User: Which sequence fits this backbone?
């Protein structure tokens, strides 16, 4: 197959894009219209590309580009995409070639992709290497994850959990934890900000999350849940969902009432919500690169594994370099210079 066999369009409506994603294998929330629209408000140019064959959508690609400061170049990123059947190697080659050609026109130094592919997908890896893609040293999304198969019955799901996890779910219910859906973005953000301060990770301003959660909830592709004790919000999460999968995208909790184990009942409630709405998979969004206690994500992974989640290795991000000197400066010289300055400032 060659590119001429494909009909390629960038003039796409919101509804047509959403319908196309639902028709493709393994659609991801980072390729949705809503995610692109949010990024468009925060400095990214958004280009949505649909590929059709015989009037049927066979691939989709949201290409985000961002202007670099002081120089007339951009960087390109395809978050969790492109979306297509990766067993169709000629199609994959044509989609990647078109994406590269588009990025060249937009003066991109490089394009990064990180589709949700298994680590052992040798066909895609060989194609990447043969066409100039290189394994990226910079991961934007979590390269690995933990997955729950929700096709099991409720009893089987509980039986697959660690005994302590089952105990904590029941303990939370006995101690008065209540879980409900919510659109109280302020309460959810306050919990998230407390979590970030406690665990030492950076977050954006509150308005970003209000826009994010609100747009996905309005589109029917996101739900928020709060766990309360005596009316006080003590834990929360935001769930993304599209296709047959839900993602544990935002988790937040307070130090208050932690002895009542609200996070356990919160996750169990989310699992049941996904099952009730016909979803097959629950992606718990993030797992260690190395399965031992030295990894910073080890504690979070133990919590997720307690629910019976299976560790899944992805093959991570790949870069296609379009301007080698600029790429070297961005990925080597500038980071080294910043590190030297940081050390000298101690």
Assistant:
């Amino acid at each position: 197959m060659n590119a001429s066999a494909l009909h390629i369009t960038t003039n796409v409506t919101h509804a047509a894009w959403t319908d196309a994603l639902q028709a493709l294998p393994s659609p991801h929330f980072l390729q949705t219209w809503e995610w692109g629209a949010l990024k468009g408000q925060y400095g990214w140019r958004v280009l949505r590309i649909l590929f059709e064959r015989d009037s049927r959508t066979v691939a989709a690609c949201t290409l985000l580009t961002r202007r670099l400061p002081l120089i007339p170049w951009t960087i390109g990123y395809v978050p969790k995409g492109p979306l297509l059947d990766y067993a169709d190697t000629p199609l994959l080659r044509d989609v990647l070639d078109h994406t590269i050609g588009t990025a060249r026109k937009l003066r991109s130094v490089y394009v990064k992709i990180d589709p949700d592919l298994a680590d052992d997908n040798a066909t895609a890896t060989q194609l990447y290497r043969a066409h100039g893609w290189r394994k990226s040293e910079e991961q934007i999304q979590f390269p690995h994850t933990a997955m729950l198969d929700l096709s099991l019955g409720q009893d089987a799901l509980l039986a697959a959990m660690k005994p302590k996890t089952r105990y904590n779910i029941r303990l939370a219910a006995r101690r008065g934890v209540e879980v409900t859906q919510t659109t109280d973005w302020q309460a959810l953000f306050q919990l998230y900000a407390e979590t970030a301060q406690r665990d030492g990770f950076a977050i954006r301003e509150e308005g970003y999350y209000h826009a994010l959660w609100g747009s996905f909830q309005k589109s029917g592709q996101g739900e928020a849940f709060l766990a309360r004790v005596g009316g006080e919000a003590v834990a929360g999460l935001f769930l993304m969902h599209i296709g047959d999968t839900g993602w544990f995208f935002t988790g937040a909790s307070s130090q208050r009432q932690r002895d009542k184990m609200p996070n356990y009942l919160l996750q169990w409630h989310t699992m049941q919500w996904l099952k009730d709405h016909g979803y097959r998979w629950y992606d718990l969004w993030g797992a260690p690169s190395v399965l031992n206690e030295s990894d910073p994500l080890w504690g979070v992974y133990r919590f997720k594994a307690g629910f019976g989640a299976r560790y899944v290795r992805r093959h991570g991000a790949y870069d296609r370099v379009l301007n080698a000197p600029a790429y070297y400066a961005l990925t080597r010289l500038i980071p080294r210079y910043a590190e030297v300055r940081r050390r000298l400032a101690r």
Notes: Residues 29 and 200 are 26 Å apart (CA to CA).
